[in-house]
Structure formats: structure tokens, C-alpha cells
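Worked example 3. Consider a protein that binds coproporphyrinogen I.
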Amino acid sequence: MSLAPTPVPPTSPADSDLVRAARGLPVSRTPVWFMRQAGRSLPEYRSLRAGTAMLDACQDPDMVTEITLQPVRRHGVDAAILFSDIVLPLVVAGMDVEIKPGIGPVIGKPVRTVADVEALPALEPEALGFLQTAVRQLVAELGATPLIGFAGAPFTLATYLIEGGPSKEHARTKAFMYAEPEAWSRLLDKLAVSAAIFLRAQVDAGAVAVQLFDSWAGVLSAADYAERVLPHSRAVFDGLGERDVPRIHFGVGTGELLPLIGDAGADVVGVDWRIPLDEATRRVGPHRSLQGNLDPAVLLADRATVDREVRRVVEQGRAARGHIFNLGHGVLPDTDPDVLTHVAELVHELTTR
Ligand code: 1CP
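Given these inputs, the predicted complex is written out as C-alpha cells:
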């Protein structure tokens, strides 16, 4: 008869495998969740969202609760991420923002001058009651499964505000950064304050981990990132004060920025698919965990390829202090949801201690 200890399943969100991996503590198995796990890959999401604008859905606590729970029920992932959007704090503050289907966030009056920066409305914490209601409902429903709160990092939000919508090169954003350094710093200060308010509201209502999305930071040189962006992202994390929740810091194309992304105050660095996790561990150092990094496009390939790539990511993730399995960026809308369920099962099977 084997006397090997049976791994004890987590009993509380704050002691879940996700939180433990983020802190570099032993886990019962590698935790897995998927960026954009809620959303268009799920038929139940498409039917619930039909006829409701994205930003209205984000401000309806019952819809937020249901959409956040859908992928947890379906895939058996180890974390929920609040259904919301990085532009929501701007909307709640009263800015003219719309999320256009098939495009993304579009800003009515883009920020192009020093006066535009000064005129940005502030986010009042009291206006986030609906969000805290959603978080409390979720915590009650989720049991031992942790809820991740999130915010957009100042740089990535600034790209939408300055460009007026999604863009590839972010050229206007960079031009503003170089031409108006004081207004740039003031803009990112304001966005950091609002991101911190958004995160505190989620943590105070029961989120047990946070992720800062700096999705587009990879367009910057390390020198510009270090001087003109990192201090503002650090201010967001500092704004959490004594709240003892692990902090995940993610961007795309950040291979050259990985050490800096960690230095902004993260427990976990999110890595895209371009850098293998063993190499990312060398860049980030031994004192932080990693999250990632399966290429979301792999999920559109055949099952043998999916399995091979999942195994590779799991193996390379063993180099890290702690590993949270995820994609290198969000789930693509054409992804077959059954493949996501399979990936979650395979990661668990490969890593159960
Ligand atoms: O109608 C729809 O279904 C709109 C699609 C959609 C969804 C489902 C958008 C518009 N946002 C969201 C939800 C969302 N956005 C989540 C939910 C939680 C989950 O992951 O399941 C999260 C975390 C975000 C964050 C977000 N929004 C980011 C950072 C993450 C990333 O993908 O890099 C960014 C850059 C945005 C802006 C945004 N919102 C929506 C779109 C299509 C975009 C990207 C546009 C662009 O390419 O610039």
C-alpha cells in the first residue's frame, strides 16, 4: 500500500494553487487559466451578450457575474478573471468611450494636447459600487476558486486615449511621449491613480490576485520603458498599499523588457510565446514566478500539436520559481472551447504532484 501523501485540494481562494504558485510556494498541481477565457469563444457568452453593448454588460453586476463564471464552469480552470475591460475606469469617470464590435475601444475625443490631459475627469471610488457588487457575488459563487482582479497599465491605456482607438505602431503615442514629456508624465500619473482605484475596489470586495495588463509596452525600447513608463506602472502596484495579494504584470513582445517588468513590483511576470519560459526565468531572475506562454494560435492546430506544445510549456515552466499556465496572449475568437477544456485537463494531468 502506498503511503505517499495525497495532494490536499485548496480550500480557500487565498490559499489556492494560483496564489501559491504566484508566491513560489508548493502547489498540488500547476494552476491554469486563460487570458480572455470569457468572451467570444463561448456560445453561452454570445447568447447572453446578444443585444447588450459591451460596456453596458460590464456595468451590470449580474451579467458580469454570469459571464465571469461561464469559463470556470466549462473548463475547470483554476481562476476566474473579472469580466470587464481596461477602458471601464475611463467610462465610469465620464469619458466618451465606446467598444465597437470587431474593433475595440474607440475614444470620442482623443487626448492630443496638454489641455486635454488636464481636462481628463477623475475616477471617483464611490462610482464603482456596481463592480464591488459583482465581485462580492462572484466570491460567494466561486468557493475555493480565486478571482483575479485587473486593470490596464498607464501606457496601454494612454495608447487608446492618444490614438483614439486600436493601432499597430502607436506612433502618435510615442510622438506625444517624446514631444510633451511633462504632459506625458502627468497623463500617466492620472491613469496610474485611476488604475489603482480600480484595483483597490476589486481587492477590497474580495479579489485575491491582480493582473496589470500593459499589453502594448513591447513597442518601447528598454530605455524609454524604464524612464517614461515603469515608474507609473510601479505607482499602480504601490497604490495597493498593504493589501497582501499577488501581483501579475503582463505585456506582449516584452522579451527585452522582462527584467524591468518584474522590477515594477510584480510577484509574477506574464510572458508571451516569443521567449521560452526557461529563458524568461533567466531574464526575470529567481525571485519571481512566471505566467504563460502557449501561443494562442496553437489552439487552432491539430490535437497532437496542441499536446506537444502544452508539454513543452509545462516542462520549460519547471525552471521558474512558480508557474501559472496560461496563453501568451488572449484566446482567439475562433478557438474551439473544447480545446481549452482539454488543455486545462492536460496541464493538471501532467503536473499533479
Ligand atoms: O463584444 C465583445 O465581446 C467585445 C470583446 C471584448 C471582450 C470580451 C473586449 C473589447 N473586451 C473584452 C473583455 C476583456 N478585456 C477582459 C475580460 C476578462 C477575460 O480575460 O476573460 C479583459 C481582461 C480585457 C482587457 C483588455 N481590453 C486588454 C488587455 C488584454 C489584452 O488582450 O491585451 C486590452 C488591450 C483591451 C482593449 C480591448 N477591449 C476589447 C478589444 C477587442 C480590445 C483590444 C483592441 C486592440 O486590439 O487594441
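Take a moment to read the result before moving on. Strands lie at 80-81, 97-100, 104-107, 147-152, 209-213, 247-250, 268-270, 289-294, 323-327. The chain has a mean pLDDT of 96.
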